[in-house]
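Anyone? Bumping this.
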Amino acid sequence: MLAMEYRGPKRVRAVQKPMPEIKHPQDAIVRVLRACICGSDLHLYNGNIPDTRVGSTFGHEFVGEIVEIGPDVTKVKVGDRVIVPFNIACGECHFCRQGMFGNCHESNTEATAVGAIFGYSHTAGGFDGGQAEYARVPYANVGPVIIPPDMDLDDAVLLTDVVPTGYQGAEMAGIQTGDTVVVFGAGPIGIMAARCAWLFGAGRVIILDKEDYRLEFARNYSYCEAYNFQEIGDPVVFIKKITDWMGADCVIDAVGAEAAGNTLQTITGRKLLLQAGSATALHWAINSVKKGGIVSIVGVYGPTDNLIPIGNAMNKGLTIRGNQTSVKRLLPRLIEHVQNGIINPKGLITHRMPLEEVADGYRMFSDKLDNCIKTVLMPPTANQ
Amino acid sequence: MKDNAINTPIDPKQIKGWGIDADPKNDPTYPMRHRMNVGEDPDSKHRPTLQHVDEEVLKSIERPNVSAVFGTPEPPRGLSGLIRRQAYKYSENQYKHWLPMILADRVDMIEGVLDDLAHGHVPNIFAERGAKMDWKYNRSGFFTRLATISLLTAGTIVLFSGKGKNKNKRSKKQRRYQDL
């Protein structure tokens, strides 16, 4: 089968690989119909996540049709079209039973701090991802959700990560009616977090980024205020100034390890890998939220350390919440929102490319070329 | 501040879905909302059916067992595999775990190129890096990168060839000295 293959930092290609096999009684094999390139994939692409092995296939955002099931699979059958949540969850462990499907304890042998994620290095379980024609989906009784017959596949594929992660970013921010919410990062997740902040009753939503085309997109898609942090001086002072010098009630870090805006963070975090990525957005989040406010982290960082002003977090009495998204927990509500026209996921898609051109897709998304917001990869077998 | 002009105020209530998920009791919110004490959880030791371990799986020492399912596609191999096996002897709490892992990733990259060559395939690094997109959408960036790479390559060649010449000069002087 054709699959994306990682060859080293900033090097990927499409190659022929062996078909995935059933390895566990609850496994299913899925023929991939749509797969996306995610901002989190860039951490892998740039070589920033330890134990990303050459030969791996990325892709944790995909939907597909079930073509084979293991003997214990009862909840889905061959021929079903399914949304595959990006995290792999057993549904039976202590954490899954608390709704923490992003923190499953029975799917990742190689690290305990993170649950398993499709196509996201051996640090996240060593599973191949969905940027391929076929993928192995473990715990098929738990993760996959059947796509409603009236749902567009482009909407469905964004329900695997972007929509739930943006939504959970807003949820974890504990937004109360009338709150001012600041979102750092106008990538797909930040744009969706800004859109979802309104669902929780936000009174004002502000997004910051350095790419004008993304800010313009966010303004139109998320109905929020949008500012280029390269044009406003110190972003923390700016946020204080436009919030009556109090700071935002809630701040969402939707950037993670690839943040720009601070030379020291960029050099130590992204170039020298002395930190687990550049923590500029998180640094700004802690300093720009009000005293007693809430910082919600959905931006991804690596497993080592980061330079952040933890003393300020303590002195300001902040609550800091973060997690990998519990996609499975959120899907029923979010499917409703999509079906009722409240959220329009496919409105984020700007580019569509054949899987064969995966290297170009990564480069375009990584370097933000051609006003790229979200790229969907189409495997050759998607139209069969 | 030029963006202020285009950030027109909006009445949130006009936005479709505004407040639809508002919940005054949403505190603490997820993930603490359904917190469960491990000691009081009668099923905390329950495990799903186990995947058969039929190849080498590196395991974090912060857990007692291999997880019920695990990924199989890229088992450790070569020098990078040796480094990874060493790294997994230390906990996730230690740099001795993570820093060698990053080294292993870079070694793996070189092994990948050698493996390609060994199989008669010369990797098309230009295509693998998606440089076509730079050429298409970022022509100036393309030429800047090309110039930088050319300069670095030329500099490296000059540096090494210069060192070579110096070595020759020294050896000639030494020969003359020896002749005297």
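Late reply, but here is one note on the structure posted above: The mean pLDDT of chain B is 86.
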